Amino acid sequence: MADCLFCKIAAGQIPATIVYQDDRLVAFKDLNPQAPMHVLVIPRRHVSSLNDLTAQDDALVGEMIRRAGLLAGEQGYGDRGYRTVFNCNADAGQTVFHVHLHVLGGRSLKWPPG
Ligand code: AMP
Ligand code: ZN
């Protein structure tokens, strides 16, 4: 999508610290990290939010979640724990409308979220 920040990151048109990529996914460090590890896992294909996923995306979403776990494990947070979050629309505070999975680790995270 022409004007989408995360499409541009996936295409290499805007710099980001990429920690993983393959033909379907890209994972990069969040610009404003909320924990020692704060990575965003995105599909290369533009999907605006969780609301716009279809049954055809089930495998893709599975890959995103599995990759989040692998990346957290690589950083050493598998045993002590980490959090994965999809924010969807205004009440959840979604600010970038290209679906992304936050992966946060390295500090004790509160529940419920604010
Ligand atoms: P959300 O509020 O769930 O839509 O999350 C969007 C996230 O994207 C925020 O945590 C931002 O800090 C992050 N972000 C915004 N611009 C960039 C960028 N250019 N590179 C990396 N992360 C970004
Ligand atoms: Zn996009």
Q: How would you summarize this macromolecular structure in one to three sentences?
A:
The protein has helices spanning 5-10, 58-74, 89-92, and strands spanning 18-21, 25-29, 37-43, 82-85, 101-105.
Structural features, described:
The protein has 114 residues and is of the alpha+beta class. 24% of the residues lie in helices and 22% in strands. The protein has 3 helices and 5 strands. It has a 5-stranded antiparallel sheet with strand order 1-2-3-5-4, covered by helices on one side. A hairpin with a 7-residue loop joins β2 and β3. The longest helix has 17 residues. The protein starts with a helix and ends in a 9-residue tail after the last strand. 23% of the residues are buried. The structure holds adenosine monophosphate (AMP) and zinc ion. Adenosine monophosphate binds next to loops.
Number of extended strands: 5
Q: How far apart are the first and last residues' alpha carbons, in Å?
A: 32 Å
Strands in their spatial order, largest beta sheet: 1-2-3-5-4
Mean pLDDT: 98
In angstroms, what is the radius of gyration?
A: 14 Å
Number of helices: 3
- H/E series: HEEEHEHE
Indicate the percent of residues in helices. 10-25%
What fraction of residues sit in β-strands? 15-25%
Low-confidence stretches: none
Q: Which secondary-structure class do the elements indicate?
A: alpha+beta
Main pleated sheet: 5 strands, antiparallel
**Hetero groups:** adenosine monophosphate, zinc ion
Inertia-based shape: globular
